[in-house]
Every structure is written in structure tokens, then in C-alpha cells.
Design brief:
The protein is mostly beta strands. The protein folds into two domains: about 150 residues, Jelly Rolls; about 80 residues, Sandwich (Jelly Rolls), CATH 2.60.120. Helices cover about 5% and strands about 40% of the residues. It is built from two helices and 21 strands. The chain has an eight-stranded mixed sheet, with no helix packed on it. The chain has a five-stranded antiparallel sheet with strand order 14-15-21-16-19. Strands 8-7-10 form a three-stranded antiparallel sheet, with no helix packed on it. Strand 14 and strand 15 form a beta hairpin. The longest helix has 8 residues.
């Protein structure tokens, strides 16, 4: 797995300065909805007051708009399939468990390049679904806001979801096992279900270096093997962990 960080550039800031960043709040309980998109669909998999984790499903050759979120950090994690992530200045091919962390204000798009489709997680910190500016869109949504109620439907039980941040394991979710868990200390990562996990999303707390510097914060994607070492320290964090199924 590879985790990359994408920073805002002069070109991002130029395009952002030419567009209004005012957006109407969404008065819909998105936790109960599946949002239909011209490229597939998305729905809310897990949420707290500080972070939301969305599950995205993209069809072959379809792509999200070239868009940015002016006020929130975004991370993407590929679960199954392959993606081409593009910013205004570069493109990167992503395979399962590869991740991208995107600074606020960075214009980006994601295209499915696998015939079987693309499944991925989108992590947004803080939760602000209305925080959206579309620069370009092949489906006619340029300069429009987030989808309205006419593009939504009530989610039924077939859409897996973590409720109320409680510990829970979902087996074989897009060819992965996904675990929501509370982790008291580093030793917890070396025992039980967590010892086999490959990556995690930090959904509560901080992970610091041995010198006390914050190395991972809410919404960051972390290789589990990295934080098992003695160079990091934490107490009482919450993780959404991912284990890739062996084929």
C-alpha cells in the first residue's frame, strides 16, 4: 500500500479565487440515504461529529467531477478495483489499499479504470457535505452544488453501515474485512483482530511521536505496521481498520 499527500498549489488557489465558495447547507439526513451519481453511487458508512466516511462505487470509465472542498481535508482509500486520481497538475494510478490525503482547496477527480468497477472510501474532516465547488464535470454539473433529494433513495439493509461508532466487524466488504474498534494502547494492535489489519483510518484521538509531536490526526490513513513501533505513542483512540482478503 502507498499513502500520498496532495498539497494545494498556486493553480488551485487561482481557480478557487475566481469562484464563489458560498453553499447552502443540506437539510437531509444523509445517514439514511444512498446518493445516486452519474458515475455510480455513494452512501455514509460511518460518522462522528468530527469525521464522515463514505463508501463510493464507480462504474468503468466513469469519473467524479474535477472539484475541491475549500474547508475540509479529504482522504481516499481504494478497497477494490483500480483508480486514476488526478489533480490540476498530476495523475496517479491507485490499486487496492492505496490512499490519497488531499488538503482543503485542492481540485481533484477520480476515475474508475477497472472493468469490474471501483470501490473506495472517502474520509471527510470535518463533516461538511455542502463544502463543494465543481470546476469541470462531464455530466453537466459544473458550478452546481451537492445532489438534491431527487437523486437520493432510502438505504435498505443491503447497504452495510457502522452505527453509533460502536465496535463492529464487517466481513468481506468489497473484498476486505472492515473493523471499527477502540484501541487503548499500542499492545492492542498486536493481539486479536487488529494484529492482521493492514491499514486504518483514525476517527478519534491523536497519534504522537515519542517526542510528543502529533504525527496522525483525525481523518488520516495509517499503515497499521507503522504505528505498532515504539516510535509512536497514543492512548484511547478509535480506528476504522481494513484487512485485504487473500484471493
Amino acid at each position: 500500500m502507498a499513502i500520498r499527500s496532495i498539497k494545494s498549489t498556486i493553480l488551485d488557489r487561482k481557480h478557487l479565487s475566481l469562484r464563489s465558495i458560498e453553499a447552502a447547507f443540506i437539510n437531509i439526513d444523509l445517514s439514511k440515504m444512498v446518493v445516486n451519481k452519474p458515475w455510480g453511487y455513494e452512501y455514509l458508512l460511518a460518522s462522528t461529529s468530527l469525521v464522515e466516511i463514505w463508501h463510493l462505487s464507480l462504474d468503468f470509465h466513469k469519473s467524479t467531477s474535477m472539484h475541491c472542498h475549500p474547508n475540509k481535508k479529504t482522504s481516499l482509500v481504494v478497497l477494490d478495483g483500480k483508480a486514476r486520481f488526478s489533480s490540476l497538475s498530476r495523475s496517479i494510478e491507485l490499486k487496492p489499499l492505496d490512499a490519497i490525503t488531499i488538503d482543503p482547496g485542492v481540485f481533484h477527480s477520480t476515475q474508475c479504470i477497472s472493468k469490474s468497477g471501483l470501490k473506495m472510501l472517502e474520509i471527510e474532516t470535518p463533516p461538511m457535505k455542502h463544502d463543494l465547488i465543481r470546476l469541470e464535470d462531464r455530466y453537466g454539473r459544473t458550478n452546481t452544488g451537492y445532489e438534491g433529494i431527487d437523486q437520493m433513495k432510502i438505504a435498505n439493509a443491503s447497504y452495510a453501515r457502522f452505527d453509533n461508532n460502536k465496535p463492529c466487524l464487517i466481513n468481506n466488504f468489497c473484498n476486505n474485512n472492515i473493523l471499527m474498534s477502540f484501541v487503548g494502547e499500542i499492545s492492542d494492535l498486536k493481539d486479536g483482530l487488529l494484529k492482521n489489519m493492514d491499514a486504518a483510518i483514525l476517527i478519534n484521538g491523536f497519534i504522537k511521536s515519542s517526542r510528543g509531536e502529533i504525527k496522525y490526526s483525525i481523518g488520516d490513513v495509517i499503515p497499521i505496521k507503522d504505528i505498532k513501533s515504539d516510535k509512536y505513542a497514543f492512548k484511547n483512540i478509535s480506528l476504522l481498520s481494513i484487512q485485504k482478503n487473500k484471493r
